[in-house]
Amino acid sequence: MLISDRLKNIKPSGVRRIFDLARQMKDPINLSIGEPDYDIPEPLKEEGIEWIRKGFNKYTPTQGIPELREKIASHLKKKGVHFEEVMVTAGVTGGLLLASLALINPGDEVVIPDPFFVMYEYQVLLMGGVPVFVDTYPDFRLREEAFTKKLSNKTKFIIINSPNNPTGAIYPEEDLRMVVRVARERDLLILSDDIYDNFVFDQPSCACIGQLYDKTLTFGGFSKGWAMTGWRLGYVAGPKDILQQMITLQQYTFSSVSSFAQKAAVKALDFNVEDHIKRYKIKRDLIYEGLKEKFHVQKPQGAFYLFPEVPGGDGEAFVEKAIQNHVFIVPGSVFSKRNSHVRISFAASEETLLRGIEVLNRIS
Ligand SMILES: Cc1ncc(COP(=O)(O)O)c(C=O)c1O
């Protein structure tokens, strides 16, 4: 067999499939997208272009250019995040892959609250690990009993993602403190994916695991807040011994990451995207108010997704119906062991959202 055993449990991404279908259709109402509908802010684009023109186009240090690492370190310190070392990665995706490579032995269990970002499940499976899911329905809260039931002597780490993709939930600080207490009792590592930390709607900022616990790998990035999805840039901060191994692994995988994007990112961390966030809060209100009568739905507190339960309780069947009506959304089963919900992205124009709301109410 030509293809490695490693791939035997790996399926193509369910989100990509919907995205490709939408691309083939004329005038789709696309609410499946996982990236902002605004472009990189002009001054940051200019910064990147200027560095390309200046010839900053070669390999960079494996762990990232010093000025960006310093900038990230001071950003995290201001936030009160505990860490010893910082590295720059090819998006949070690249950082997660290096962490999985560095940490997971075949048979190791990784505890993940469900619903979850799809990549977690597959990266664990790729390493021969076992994803273990903790159900957080119906209100997407982390509960001690549900959590501790899933921990075993094979548990290697826990992954927390808040604000959350696909639910838009922000876990309250008391939930995070509970997870930290449970992890501390067992000396477990926590991976905290904070990529949506710019997208917080009803409070000035949200708590994150890295503020509460030293044994945390904190992941952050430039894809969402500054819309740099195509520039592939993120970072990881945490304990030195783990980061050193991840930097070594980066030498043999990504080598280093995009040169000009790192220069632009130095400026990004000082570039306020508050106006965009305010607009996203308006979009959040529009879609939540538009759907809450017909759908059972939690009001998203962050990120740019709504995760309603569909009437009838069959998410995949509902998505088929939506697609027949030109609305592209993603079945909850892509992000969950349950198929009762769907993910709706509100990273779209208000006009698109209004058209989507009309169709979704009509077919529900
Ligand atoms: C929760 C979460 N983590 C990580 C990523 C990937 O981010 P990046 O573009 O930095 O690789 C995404 C993208 O959708 C995401 O939703």
Commentary on this structure:
The mean pLDDT is 96. A seven-stranded mixed beta sheet has the order 2-8-7-6-5-3-4, with helices on both faces. The protein has two domains: 127 residues, Aspartate Aminotransferase, domain 1; 211 residues, Type I PLP-dependent aspartate aminotransferase-like (Major domain) (Aspartate Aminotransferase, domain 2, 3-Layer(aba) Sandwich). Helices cover 40% and strands 14% of the residues. α7 links the parallel β5 and β6. By secondary structure, the chain is α/β, with parallel strands linked by helices. The longest helix is centred in the last third of the chain and has 18 residues. It is built from twelve helices and twelve strands. The structure holds pyridoxal-5'-phosphate. The site of pyridoxal-5'-phosphate has 13 residues, from α4.
Task: Write a brief caption for the model.
This protein has 12 helices and 12 strands. The protein has 364 residues and is of the alpha/beta class.
Determine the CATH superfamily of the largest domain: Type I PLP-dependent aspartate aminotransferase-like (Major domain)
Mean of residue pLDDT values:
96
Question: Stretches where pLDDT falls below 50 for ≥5 residues?
Answer: none
As a percent range, the share of helical residues equals: 25-40%
Structural class: alpha/beta
The total count of helices amounts to: 12
Q: How many structurally independent domains?
A: 2
Order of helices and strands: HEHHEHEHEHEHEEEHHHEHEEEH
Radius of gyration: 20 Å
**Reading side by side through the largest sheet, how are the strands ordered?**
2-8-7-6-5-3-4
Q: Categorize the overall geometry.
A: globular
CATH fold type of the largest domain: Aspartate Aminotransferase, domain 2
CATH architecture of the largest domain: 3-Layer(aba) Sandwich
